[in-house]
Amino acid sequence: MKKIIYILSITALLAGCVSFSGYWDKSVKLVRERKFSEAYSAMESEIAKKPRDATIRFRYSLILHAGGRFTEAAAQSDTSLIFGMKEPDAFKEAEKFGVSFGDIYAEAGLQYLEESLYIEAAECFVKAASFSIEMPYFYNLAGFSMLKADDETQAALYFSKALEIDSLYEEARLNYSLSLFRAGDYSLLFSFLKKYRTLKPSEYYMLGTSMLMSLDSFSVIENKDEIQSYLDMALEDTSSIVKASALYNNAMLGVMSGDRDRALKCFSEASVLDSTSFSLYYNYGVLLMESGMYSQAKNIFTIAIAIDPYFADAYTNRAICGEKLGERDNAKLDYIRGMELRKEQ
Asked: What is the sign of the dihedral through the CA atoms of 144, 148, 152 and 153?
């Protein structure tokens, strides 16, 4: 995720181009001298005198923003709008101070993200977008925040908004796909990604996987070559997790279509990249066992059990392999453990 950095511009202040009177002129001077604590105090004194004055509240937000207190600046901006500050006036005030109105909320959003306050971050980014002619990257950041909050549905809405503004925004496209993928909305994801001629490797992975998940068994076999091509293109991704997942799905495609040799090859390559996936090792072990490769299957089931020691079938299958290899005592223990786990479940 690219981090957007906003640099507060106080060029106008330093050049002496901002001129007000009274408390504001004093506050601007203090900011120019980087005396933020004194500037805050000056503004707070004015607020104490006129607590519902919208202009004072908004000017206080500008002082807070200048001092890096971004979330407080956004809260004061909200208050000023509630108290009657007109948006055009706020734009002018902010412009004179060397910032944009949208920057106040964008910076607050970034600060909330750093503090893991994802819903608050999303709200700020949406406000930043509305005050910045609906900039797509703010909606993308709002969607990213909601993904971090595990709200894939709301994330997808924000990402789709970013794509409405800029249909060529690749990062928003990738994030929208990811939100649909995490939500398990494979049919919609499949329809969405099929519209594009070229995709990133991780998107090819999601496209191939969405076809696997959304089509029935007959259709999967019928479209095997297309699905396989997408999963193969996913192997160009730099992430070992994406590569391992693509290889695993390719192996499962081989199992479904009866291409046992390809399935074994893909399982083997995936196991080198991912040592933490129980389903990978369990299904790899099943295929090895069904292929009569009992010694290798037994070793793979042992790894699967180390990852998840509470899955009964892994013990039962290792027992079958042990029995085939003449290791009756160990096989008996595995059979017993498998039965115990089934009773517990």
From this structure: negative
Answer whether 252's CB lies under 8 Å from 212's CB.
Answer: yes
Predicted TM-score (pTM) of this structure: 0.82
Neighbours of 138 (CB within 10 A): 27
pLDDT per position as a tens digit, 235-276: 999 999 999 999 999 999 999 999 999 999 999 999 999 999
Q: For the chain, what is the total number of helices (H) and then of strands (E)?
A: 21, 0
Q: Which of 239, 242, 248, 290 is nearest to 268 (CA)?
A: 248
Residue 155 structure tokens:
């994330």
Give me the sign of the Cα torsion angle 264, 274, 239, 158: positive
The structure tokens listed for 317 are 């299958």
Q: Are 97 and 73 in contact (CB under 8 A)?
A: no
**Whole-angstrom distance, CA of residue 135 vs CA of residue 94:** 18
Question: N- to C-terminal Cα distance for the chain?
Answer: 41
> CA–CA separation, 107 vs 74, rounded Å?
9
Residue with tokens 């290889």: 247
